[in-house]
């Protein structure tokens, strides 16, 4: 009996010890391994990895990136595999996502581990940059990548066996900046498992099994209340998830309780533009905030960037770039001096007054150079114009005619009036030209005749035709206008008897011969039209000196029947990761070619003929669409799907330069 009581007490203690862990619900199904969580800033999308999963895209069930969405009620939905180009045929893991959610960093395993940066356009993703990882930073469990600042933080061993945290910055041409130790975070203990939070500013890491947080790069680290059982943590302002430490056995992603989830300070998404793009060889720029924090940003081609600003923070991107006076003449509208006061309202008021002075100066210069007429000059030039120069409604006319806005409004109204007068003149000339060039045909024998305008009985069809001729380009009269002529022919037809079978056969044969002649003439017309169109296009291309139509450089890799490295997902028209790189190279070759490039798409010989032809045409359309997105005009190339009609060489994409 005593042994039985001891057993019951031990079992109760064991169950009580596991109750906190059982209260945390796993996001995924039972028996499916999930790890490497990455959250968006809004907390509504979770990127993660499923190792050794049957439905993975790679060979031998290698890890793939999966996506799970969160609905408005806070429930996580069913996971989906996004496919290529997010996933490849090697091991893939998500590393980070930008604050606006349109950029994603993916770890590519295999021979030489690397990081692919993908950018979303609509619903499609495309690889934009690739960096090979340094030899000391190839452990996917001990590295993280900040997509907003292109910052790589990783743990590497130091003398003595423990690890320290280091930082590198991505540069152009796949290079990295030198490694710098994070002295503010490193200690004599073991630091590892770094993870950037969804705001792109908070860094989470483990120190000897305990979780710490650095809210910004300039701030010291502080301990946080996250259980040590979580080996990886993904944090957003509204939700926090973590991966349990049972690596290789039952890895799963669980939601961390509310009391432990206040890891990321609340912030608002802020979008702005840099005054000057990053310097040569640089991909990022520094944006200082009013509280002394300096953020790295990765702008797009237009200089736009997005960051998360916390309460009370203001960004001044123009103070982080070279002085504007070095690039623009002093006194221009783009002249923005350094901020000399923390009072933003006073700063904006001063800047507004300076802009008004610049506008007044430019208005005086405009009058001096006589770029446009003043309202008084226009009235003197057109004294008989009853409407004056103001075409705005009375309720929208400015009362203060001496202000700069009133002057601009009057100048704009005069410009609109002149434009409308010009359009009326153009329409009048077009009607006169169409009337002079109009040719009218009679129903008799095709001789030229002018329209009969003499008075007579009202002809509804003729009146309708006359009205249409006055509104649009002259057209032939409708068939209803010849109804009397048709009746006359019908009355004159001989009624000697029914037409015999021989006559019917002869008429059918003559009709077939005429139709065949028409078909041949149409075919010849299409060929001649296409030839003339090609000739005009060639002449147009020859007359314009485009840089990409210069003589191809010596040693160009594009030659007769060149096989390209454009690859697709098997049996689909979707490009894989290597296919995007191949098309980028193809676009560069087309720009350097001396004539139109013909791209031929061949499919595997084992496919059915009809299916192979359809697949090759779909792949040809994909290539043409991608080249168009890269800015290559369609007149410089043509893509043809050959199916499997030329099986020699197998499935391939070739380029032919005449």
From TrEMBL:
Coiled-coil features, chain-numbered ranges: none
Entry keyword set: Membrane, Signal
Location of the OmpA-like domain: 555-658
One Pfam family named in its UniProt record: OmpA
InterPro entries in the cross-refs: OmpA-like, OmpA-like_sf
Keyword Cell inner membrane: no
Annotated region described as Disordered, given as residue ranges: 379-404
Signal peptide: 1-23
GO cellular component, one term: membrane
Keyword Disulfide bond found: no
Top-level taxon of origin: Bacteria
Protein name: WD40 repeat protein
């Amino acid at each position: 009996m005593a042994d039985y009581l001891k057993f019951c007490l031990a079992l109760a203690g064991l169950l009580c010890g596991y109750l906190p862990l059982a209260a945390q619900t796993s996001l995924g199904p039972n028996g499916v391994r999930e790890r490497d969580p990455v959250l968006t800033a809004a907390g509504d999308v979770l990127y993660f990895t499923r190792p050794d999963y049957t439905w993975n895209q790679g060979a031998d069930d290698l890890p793939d990136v999966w996506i799970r969405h969160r609905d408005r009620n806070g429930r996580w939905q069913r996971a989906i595999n996004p496919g290529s180009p997010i996933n490849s045929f090697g091991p893939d893991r998500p590393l980070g996502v930008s604050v606006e959610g349109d950029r994603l960093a993916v770890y590519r395993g295999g021979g030489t581990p690397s990081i692919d940066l993908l950018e979303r356009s609509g619903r499609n993703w495309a690889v934009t940059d690739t960096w090979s990882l340094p030899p000391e930073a190839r452990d996917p469990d001990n590295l993280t990548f900040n997509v907003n600042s292109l910052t790589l933080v990783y743990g590497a061993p130091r003398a003595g066996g423990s690890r320290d945290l280091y930082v590198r910055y991505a540069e152009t041409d796949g290079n990295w900046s030198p490694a710098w130790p994070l002295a503010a975070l490193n200690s004599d203990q073991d630091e590892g498992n770094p993870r950037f939070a969804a705001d792109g500013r908070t860094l989470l890491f483990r120190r000897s099994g305990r979780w710490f947080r650095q809210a910004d790069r300039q701030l010291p680290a502080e301990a946080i209340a996250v259980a040590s059982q979580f080996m990886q943590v993904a944090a957003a302002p509204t939700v926090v998830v973590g991966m349990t430490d049972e690596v290789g056995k039952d890895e799963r992603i669980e939601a961390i309780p509310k009391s432990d989830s206040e890891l990321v300070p609340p912030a608002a998404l802020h979008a702005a533009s840099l005054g000057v793009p990053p310097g040569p060889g640089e991909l990022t720029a520094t944006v200082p905030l009013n509280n002394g924090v300096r953020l790295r940003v990765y702008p797009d081609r237009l200089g736009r960037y997005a960051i998360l600003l916390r309460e009370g923070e203001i960004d001044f991107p123009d103070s982080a770039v070279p002085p504007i006076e070095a690039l623009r003449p002093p006194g221009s509208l783009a002249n923005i001096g350094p901020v000399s006061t923390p009072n933003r309202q006073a700063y904006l008021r001063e800047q507004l007054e300076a802009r008004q002075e610049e506008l007044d100066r430019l208005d005086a210069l405009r009058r001096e150079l006589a770029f446009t007429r003043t309202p008084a000059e226009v009235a003197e030039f057109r004294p008989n114009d009853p409407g004056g120069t103001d075409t705005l409604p009375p309720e929208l006319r400015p009362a203060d005619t001496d202000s700069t806005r009133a002057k601009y409004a009057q100048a704009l109204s005069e410009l609109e009036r002149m434009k409308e007068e010009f359009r009326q003149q153009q329409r009048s000339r077009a009607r006169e030209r169409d009337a002079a060039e109009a040719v009218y045909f009679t129903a008799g024998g095709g001789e030229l005749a002018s329209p009969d305008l003499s008075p007579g009985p009202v002809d509804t069809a003729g009146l309708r035709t006359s009205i249409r001729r006055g509104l649009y380009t002259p057209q032939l009269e409708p068939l209803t206008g010849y109804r009397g002529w048709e009746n006359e022919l019908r009355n004159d037809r001989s009624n000697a008897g029914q037409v015999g079978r021989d006559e019917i056969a002869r008429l059918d044969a003559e009709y077939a011969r005429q139709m065949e002649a028409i078909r041949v003439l149409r075919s010849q017309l299409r060929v001649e039209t296409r030839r003339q169109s090609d000739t005009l296009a060639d002449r147009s291309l020859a007359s314009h000196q485009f840089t990409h139509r210069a003589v191809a450089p010596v040693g160009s890799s594009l030659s007769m029947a060149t096989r390209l490295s454009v690859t697709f997902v098997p049996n689909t028209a979707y490009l894989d990761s290597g296919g995007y790189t191949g098309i980028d190279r193809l676009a560069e070759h087309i720009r350097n070619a001396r004539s139109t490039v013909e791209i031929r798409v061949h499919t595997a010989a084992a496919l059915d003929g009809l299916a192979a032809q359809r697949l090759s045409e779909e792949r040809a359309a994909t290539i043409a669409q991608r080249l168009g997105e890269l800015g290559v005009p369609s007149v410089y190339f043509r893509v043809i799907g050959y199916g499997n009609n030329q099986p020699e060489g197998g499935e391939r994409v070739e380029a032919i330069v005449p």
